[in-house]
Amino acid sequence: MPARTMPMATLTTATKEYHIRLPTTWSPHSSRKVVTQREDAMALNPRYHQSGQIIHDIRAKSQVQRPHAMADMLPPGVLCKIFATCARITSHDPNWSWITVTHVCASWRRVALAQPSLWANIDFTAPRLTTLTLRRAKSSPLFIRTSVENRNIKQLHQVLHTSSLIHDIDIVSSLHGFQSLTEALTRPHPRLRSLTIVILGRRDDREIVHYKVPLSSHGNPLPSLTNLELHRCPFALVSSRFISLKHLSLFSLPPSERPEMRAFLLTLAGFPFLQTLTLVDAFPKPPVFGSISSTGGRIPVPRLQSICLQGGIVEISQLLDHLFLPHTTRIKCTIDHLNATTFSNGRPDPTHDVRRLAKVLGEHLSSNGAKVLPLQKLVLTSREESFRWANEKYDLNPDFRQSMRIRGFRADSGWDDAGLDLALSLRSHPCEDEVIIGWLMTLWKVLPLGNVQSVAFQNVDVITQKSWQKLLRSLPSVSMLEVNGYAPSGLAWALLLNANANVDGVDGERVGGEGGLLLPCLKDVFLYDVDCFQGGFMMSSTMSTNSHRDLDDSRFMDVMLFYFQLRNTLSTSLRLRTLRLFQCRNVPGGVLKDSRGWVENLYWDRRGEVDEAQDEFQEFAHYRKRCLVGNGQLNSRHFRRLLTLQERL
């Protein structure tokens, strides 16, 4: 539509007449630009007598009336980032095309057309768009990110066969679509840097079978390819031609496609520049006796910076047992099912497999020990899903899930790159407390914890007092304790009873030596989002777990404050330096103020305070509903351990 000239606008006030020229062009993308009666009335107001102010107000009103005004003001650099982000979206909607975003207005379209690299993101929505983007990309490196469907498979096949400028391939496909493109995907692309293939299906789908399409590993090397990520794909796609491969990620490898252990290790040995290795349900087959050298030779991966493994405990142990890792490698292992090789009383017994995993990890952590940076911070995180009990008989809820995670950080580690990351998170059936505690106790023995200075516990209340005594004995250098979420009653009681046992005979040897005070270097305690009235559980008389029927109504904060008091009684050098409470609930204000005699510095945001009058009506401690049957009174017994201990003292 041709541009039209707009008339002059005349505004008359009590003393003067103003002539203001409005914008000279009009387009269908702009709202009408006329002076309304409301603006005339505003101009008659004495406070609008200045012409500059009138012009400013009219322009501001015009900006409000034009919905695209702010979009027109975006700088080209920001627009290019928006376009590039949209171009990287892989959508299954046949009507979606990232090119549509460039049609918002003429200025956006001009910016898009001036960027040939933007059009290198080939659009496979329609044949004409594929041809259009290829032409506008010119000689820029091509990026193929699309979902393979019947409407675009022909164009995709043609581009993969004819173009020599492809840098990145990222496709999502069904099994049939992938098998139609297998030959095109395996042909040599000399400039290819990254290859990602996702075959749709459930993670636990073990029935997927690939047609036996010949995939040749011979041919010219592909020195540019550094990243390879495969989901439910044939292992044969991992070619020895990728001589510069740095990042290898395999997910949900079908059982029919899993290689032998020896073939897998030889493939890894052919990638001397490999930096990260990720395997999620994609482990090789168990080694056949005699197929691996019995001399204990391991395949070295000299430049590996990170290894991430998720699957069964047996598979993880077997693979780690055949690798020689550099001392700086970050190890992350997530056990999502216990494919136990031994049984006890007809039930799977993972004890032997946990010990084997601990042995392998211990060997990796102790090799070249003089060069390894020691762990300085340890974080334990527990997580629960659904309610624990299914009925009043304390039968475990089949939908109940709980996990435990251990992270160890070195001095050079960031928050997201722990030097050691171990997790037990079963996805198919509930994980009982006994398994969690046994797994934790076994792995704890092989971890290098002598130099750990800070420990943090997030929602960890499943560990018993007796287990805590053994765990804390391995942390002689800890000076900072952080508690976040659920109150660890077992930890508090382990510290309190240990301090009480040391009250009668304190000397330097006993405080620091075997059987002496736990955490002798502790100086700072931080509590975040903790219910200070939360109670605990008594230990089971038949198992190494807590008894959820026997409740201890000793509140967490009362136990901790009594522990601080006993530390101060032992020695003034053991006096706590800092106690900080942030976003905690049910904080006994009066009792907390009395603790200043045992703590040098008390920091509290004054949230969740309970005064002394309200505190007197608290008969029972608080418990999480997910751990109780009903309201905690049915088939439950209540104890007051702290009151009994104080009366005895």
Question: How would you characterize this protein structure?
Answer:
It is a single chain. Among the domains are: 65 residues, no CATH class; 177 residues, no CATH class; 197 residues, no CATH class. It is of the alpha/beta class and 649 residues long. The longest helix is centred in the middle third of the chain and has 16 residues. Helix 10 packs parallel to helix 11 and helix 14 packs parallel to helix 16. The protein is elongated, with a radius of gyration of 34 Å. It has 19 helices and 27 strands. Strands 3-4-5-6-7-8-10-12-17-16-15-18-19-20-23-25 form a 16-stranded mixed β-sheet. It has a 3-stranded mixed β-sheet with strand order 21-22-27, with no helix packed on it. It has a two-stranded antiparallel sheet with strand order 1-2. 28% of the residues lie in helices and 22% in strands.
Mean pLDDT across all amino acids: 79
Tally the beta strands. 27
Largest sheet: 16 strands, mixed
Q: Kindly provide the radius of gyration, computed on alpha-carbon positions and rounded to a whole number of angstroms.
A: 34 Å
The largest sheet has its strands arranged as 3-4-5-6-7-8-10-12-17-16-15-18-19-20-23-25
Query: What is the SS-derived class?
Result: alpha/beta
- Straight-line distance between termini: 94 Å
List the total number of helices: 19
Strand content: 15-25%
* Shape category: elongated
